[in-house]
Structures are given as C-alpha cells and as structure tokens.
C-alpha cells in the first residue's frame, strides 16, 4: 500500500491548492469562497523522488448532526482514519483562529504524525502568522505558498523524515514505463462518467455500487461540485467511476463556482470511455437530457441511459419497451443505446446497468473485418445509390475502418464535399443494423480518391 497523507484544516486555508500542487494537475476545484471542497478526493502525488497518495478533504467545521456540514466532517474523519500521516494547514496571513486551535487538538488525538503547514507565508504578514503557529504545539511549522510553489523543498525534507523507506524504494522504479500488453489493456479498469441534470441521483447510485456512503448526497440540488473518481470491482471487472456535478442549461449558470463544476464534469466526460446519462423517471427526456446526450455523442463516448428513481413510478407492463421507443425517437443519433431502469436508493437494476456498461464498452471497441465491411457497402450502395448532385453522379469507391473507440471509418469517393449528410446518416444506420453497433457513435470521414488521369486534362501552354 502506498504511503497516504490527508490534508486537513479549516475552510479556505489552501488545502485544495496544495493538493493540486502535489498531484501536478488542477484536479480539485479552487475558489476564494470557503467550503468549495465537500467530498474527499484522492490523488497520486509526487514531490522530488517521494511518491505517495494524498487526500484532499473538506474544511474541518462544526455542524448539527445529520446536516451537510456534519457529513462533510465525517468524510474528513474517514480520510484521517485512512491516512498514515496528516498535513495540518493554517492560513499564515490570517493568523491563528479558535477553530485552528480546536482542530489542532483533534489532529493530536488522531495519534498520527502531523506536519504543520503555514500556507500563504509569502511576505512579512505571512511570516508573523507562521510564528504564531508554534502555539499549537505541533512542532516547527513548514512555511509554504501552495499557490506559488514556495517552500516545497522544506516540505520535501519534512516528508522524507516520515517515509525514508518509500523514498529509497522508488529510486529503482524504472519498470513502470514498460508498455502494456494487450492482455494488460483488457484488464485495465473501464472509465465511466455518470452525468446528468442536478438531483438526478448520480451520487446515490455510485454509493449503492460501492456499498458505502462514499459520496455526499442531499435532496438539495448541486451537492456535488468536484468530479470524484472511485474504484469499483463488479463481478471481477474493475471500473473507475466518476461522479460529476449536475449540468443545468448554460443560461441558468451564473455563479463562478458552478461554472468551474460544469467544466470539471465536461472534462470527466472527455476522459471517460463509457458515459452513463442519468435521467429522472418522473421527468425523463427533458431538453437538457437531450443536450447532454448530444454532447456525449459529439465527444465520441459510448452511451448508456439510466432512468433513475424507477421505484417512484407506477410501472405498467410494456413500460420499458415504451421507454426504449421514446429514447430512439428523441435520440436518433445514438439509436439503440442501452437503456436501463434503476433505483439508486433501493438498489434495483444495478446488475443490469453494469452489464449494459460492459456491453457498450465492447461495442465501442469493436472492429469490423474489411471484407465484410465492403460486402455490406456494396449491398447498401446498390440498394440505395447516392443522389446525383448538379447533374453529376457521385462515385463511392470503397470503405475501411480507420480505428475503434469509437468505430471510425474512411469512405473513399469522388467529390467528397458533395456527399449529402442525409446519405451519410443512411449509411451509419445501415451499418449499425448490419454489424450490431447499437448506441455507440459511428464516424465516417470522406476522402477523395486520387484521379490517375487528372494530369492528362491539362492542355499544353
């Protein structure tokens, strides 16, 4: 197990900024407003030759039992329990506060090594606040600026004293760069993003998959802010599932923090291989759902539609078939995408959903043999020849698959710019049916075949 460090402290002292600095990416949302981080987030950190796991946590704060604030603190307590050591962060510019003193006692009671970090220590005001931190009784403070990268050398020295063996072991980690074999790639976790409108039940569903309250949930829309990745093993298959913030219509997004959350959710979609679109069974296929599905198709990701809160619907015989027909009507660009009725709260339909994700992933990776592809192509063109444009017939020569993930094809033809979009849609729909490619995006790129007689048309000057 890697050495694990939890970053703790009161809200708005720079914990997420430090987390981003250590992992080398802007994974955690950062804003001037306090309380941005809610769920705990883990990342692989590196500082010099030290490699470890770092956990970003919500700011330690008091709240009434059962409230969102109290459950955020429970997440922090869980992170402290998982950690081998703690980084206790204070704001050196603000100086010590009663909250800092209270939670310094809390950190001591955890009975784990603590590194005291005086963040925002640049300038003379920061120097004064750092001196005050000696009163906490947690040893010498390490003065840093997570925003500007100052004090990282001193932090390295403090960390190295806690994990000397880890530093030595990683000096010989040259085998990490060996290329993965096909078998290793097949065993790699499937990356899945769960996305949808606010309050569709995304976090509740993922908690059900995990079997624990890993992600904060609330009846209030907008509880999730960061895109949080969790590891799930389901029937022997590994998945890396991303919980995301709810996506509202762009015209309704005004606050800077919500804009950051939406951008983080969109990054999760681009990083994913399969995207689960969560819709509400009581308000399904609304305009925003259709916009999100169109985004997923344009990004070229495999799509699975999950109709959540099915336990609240009085389902009649044939309800699922009616849903399937409705989905194909509203989403013709991903016709045949797997559709599963689930209840994240009650755990209904979870097995069907995971099988649908595996099936969608397999289709997304599918390659079609060239011989079979061109036999289908000849039959499709003979059954419905392309229309003449400006009195001239279009000639379609042959087609080949360029890549998978998603299935992408190159069609060689004459006058590529004149092939109508409607005819390409005909070919895509025919291909879906012939080669069993339901729901996955299918790309057809047009290439003009070189004319070997073009040079003979030129008249001598």
Instruction: Report the structural category.
Output: alpha/beta
Stretches where pLDDT is under 50 for at least 5 consecutive residues are 166-179
* Proportion of helical residues: 25-40%
Characterize the largest beta sheet: strand count, sense, and whether it forms a barrel.
Answer: 6 strands, mixed
Radius of gyration: 27 Å
Q: How far do the termini sit from each other?
A: 77 Å
User: Overall 3D geometry?
Assistant: elongated
Q: How many DSSP E strands?
A: 15
User: Whole-number average pLDDT?
Assistant: 83
Strand content: 15-25%
Secondary-structure element sequence?
EHEEHEHEHEHHHEHEEHEHEHEHHEEHE
SS element count, helices:
14
**Strand numbers in spatial order across the main sheet:** 2-3-1-4-5-6
Oligomer: single chain
Task: Spell out the blueprint of helices and strands.
Layout: E1 4-8, H1 15-23, E2 41-47, E3 50-56, H2 68-82, E4 85-91, H3 98-109, E5 114-119, H4 123-132, E6 142-143, H5 152-162, H6 164-169, H7 182-187, E7 190-196, H8 202-210, E8 228-234, E9 237-243, H9 256-271, E10 274-280, H10 287-298, E11 302-308, H11 319-330, E12 339-341, H12 350-364, H13 370-383, E13 396-403, E14 408-413, H14 421-435, E15 443-448
Parallel strand pairs: 1-3, 1-4, 4-5, 5-6, 7-9, 7-10, 10-11, 11-12, 14-15
Antiparallel strand pairs: 2-3, 8-9, 13-14
Question: How would you describe what is shown here?
Answer:
With 461 residues, the chain is an alpha/beta fold. The chain has 14 helices and 15 strands. The strands form 3 sheets. It has a 6-stranded mixed sheet with strand order 2-3-1-4-5-6, with helices on both faces. Strand 8 and strand 9 form a beta hairpin. It is elongated. About 3% of the residues have low confidence.
């Amino acid at each position: 197990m890697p050495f694990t460090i939890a970053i703790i402290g009161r809200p708005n002292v720079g914990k997420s900024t430090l987390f981003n600095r250590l992992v080398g990416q802007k994974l955690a949302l950062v804003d001037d407003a306090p309380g941005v981080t809610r769920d705990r987030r883990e990342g692989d950190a590196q500082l010099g030759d030290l490699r470890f796991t770092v956990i970003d946590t919500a700011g330690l704060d008091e709240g009434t039992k059962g409230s969102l604030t109290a459950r955020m603190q429970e997440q922090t307590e869980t992170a402290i329990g998982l950690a081998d050591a703690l980084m206790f962060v204070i704001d050196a510019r603000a100086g010590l506060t009663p909250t800092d003193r209270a939670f310094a006692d809390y950190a001591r009671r955890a009975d784990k090594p603590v590194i005291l970090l005086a963040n925002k220590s640049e300038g003379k005001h920061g120097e004064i606040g750092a001196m005050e931190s000696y009163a906490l009784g947690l040893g010498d403070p390490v003065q840093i600026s997570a925003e500007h990268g100052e004090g990282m050398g001193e932090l390295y020295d403090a960390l190295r004293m806690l994990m000397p063996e880890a530093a030595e072991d990683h000096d010989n980690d040259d085998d990490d760069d060996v290329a993965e074999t096909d078998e290793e790639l097949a065993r790699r976790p499937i990356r899945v993003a769960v996305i949808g409108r606010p309050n569709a039940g995304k976090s509740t569903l993922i908690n059900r998959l995990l079997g624990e309250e890993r992600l904060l949930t609330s009846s209030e829309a907008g509880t999730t802010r960061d895109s949080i990745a969790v590891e799930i093993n389901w029937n022997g298959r590994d998945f890396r599932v991303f919980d995301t913030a709810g996506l509202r219509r762009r015209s309704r997004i005004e606050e800077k923090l919500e804009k950051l959350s939406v951008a983080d959710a969109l990054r999760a979609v681009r990083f994913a291989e399969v995207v689960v679109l969560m819709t509400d069974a009581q308000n399904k296929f609304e305009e925003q759902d259709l916009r999100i599905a169109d985004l997923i198709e344009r990004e070229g990701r495999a799509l699975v539609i999950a109709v959540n809160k099915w336990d609240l619907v009085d389902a009649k015989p044939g309800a699922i078939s009616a849903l399937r027909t409705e989905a194909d009507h509203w989403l013709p660009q991903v016709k045949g995408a797997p559709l599963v009725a689930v209840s994240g709260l009650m755990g209904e339909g979870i097995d069907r959903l995971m099988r649908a994700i595996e099936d969608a992933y397999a289709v997304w990776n599918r390659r079609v043999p060239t011989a079979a592809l061109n036999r289908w192509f000849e039959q499709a063109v003979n059954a419905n020849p392309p229309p003449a444009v400006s009195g001239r017939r279009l000639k379609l020569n042959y087609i080949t698959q360029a890549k998978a993930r998603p299935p992408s094809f190159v069609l060689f033809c004459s006058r590529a710019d004149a092939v109508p979009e409607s005819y390409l849609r005909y070919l895509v729909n025919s291909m879906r049916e012939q080669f069993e490619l339901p729901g996955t995006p299918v790309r057809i790129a047009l290439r003009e075949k070189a004319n070997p007689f073009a040079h003979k048309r030129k008249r001598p000057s």
